[in-house]
Design brief:
- The protein is 37% helix and 17% strand.
- The protein has 294 residues and is an alpha/beta fold.
- The strands form two sheets. A six-stranded mixed sheet has the order 1-2-10-7-8-9. The chain has a four-stranded parallel sheet with strand order 5-4-3-6, with helices on both faces.
- The chain is globular and about 60 Å long.
- The N and C termini lie far apart (42 Å).
Length: 294
């Protein structure tokens, strides 16, 4: 439906702390899919875009914070595939590099007070309820259609893994990965690293999206203070990882994921010889919001 130069290789990760216990650690480079529609953002948007097109909707309307990777991905996807786009931004008006890029891709931005933002459907209905061309996309792309795109990650694997890791904000990507594993009857254990404090609710959200979560573990101790929060150990790890591997990660999502894996390895969490895959979920523009902390 939509032509797209798709490239997401799997690479062996060369980082000394991961060598212990004869582990095999690979990285699925979804960050290379596209510079702006990267990682799980494209996975979650793919079938939503097809559904919008099928139903004659040419205006994508979605939601996110000021540094939302999803807003930028939606803006870039809209420009690439002939849609208009509007992004409702949570909180007071701000000006940053991420939102500037959204606007360059043609996205109209509307800032919404945090309390009103909680009811996204109401916000959509207030502005676009009478617009037959407007298409609602939830924050982060969370939806049943998003699961289909995330499940396809499993179809691209040529090796069976004992464990798969990814960052976890809404649980949508994990739910899709679980779907893909169930479809292939694989016993791989899924690990979500919660990037926000109090992430225990994520398992229930995943069950609401997919219906089950028996092959999923959520690690809730690696949020470093909460969503988009950091602490010196995380920033030091990010610098060490990037300078040692040449793989860029950022401290909001991906650095927390790799840090969690390193800590679990150091604490003998896995069986010797474990085969581990980490999904690089992209969203690297977000590092600009933290660049002054390095």
């Amino acid at each position: 439906m939509f032509p797209f130069n798709f490239f997401s290789p799997i690479e062996r990760l060369r980082y000394e702390p991961f060598y212990k216990k004869n582990y095999t650690v690979d990285i699925k480079r979804d960050d290379l899919i596209h510079p702006f529609i990267s990682g799980n953002k494209w996975r979650k948007l793919k079938y939503l875009l097809q559904d919008a097109h099928k139903n004659g909707r040419n205006h994508l309307v979605t939601f996110g914070g000021a540094w939302s990777n999803h807003l930028l991905a939606t803006a870039a996807a809209a420009a690439s595939f002939g849609f208009k786009s509007t992004g409702f931004v949570r909180g007071e008006p701000v000006d940053n590099a991420n939102l500037k890029l959204c606007q360059l891709f043609g996205m109209q931005l509307i800032f919404v007070e945090r309390e009103a933002y909680r009811n996204k459907q109401h916000v959509f209905d207030h502005y676009f309820g009478q617009d037959k061309y407007a298409y609602f996309i939830n924050e982060g792309g969370a939806s049943s259609l998003a699961l289909l795109g995330c499940a396809e990650i499993i179809d691209e694997l040529r090796t069976d893994y004992d464990h798969i890791f990814c960052a976890c904000g809404t649980g949508t990507t994990l739910a899709g990965l679980s779907m893909g594993l169930k479809q292939r009857n694989q016993q791989t254990k899924l690990h979500g690293v919660s990037v926000l404090a109090g992430g225990d609710f994520l398992l229930e959200d995943i069950k609401k999206l997919y219906g089950e979560a028996d092959n999923i573990t959520i690690h809730t101790s690696y949020h470093f203070g909460g969503y988009a929060k950091t602490k010196p150990p995380l920033m030091d790890f990010t610098k060490s990882f990037v300078s040692s591997t040449g793989v860029l990660i950022e401290p909001v999502y991906t650095a927390k994921t790799f840090y969690a894996l390193m800590d679990l390895i150091e604490n003998n969490y896995f069986q010797e010889g474990a085969r581990i895959l980490v999904l690089h979920t992209g969203g690297l523009i977000g590092i600009l919001g933290k660049i002054d902390e390095f």
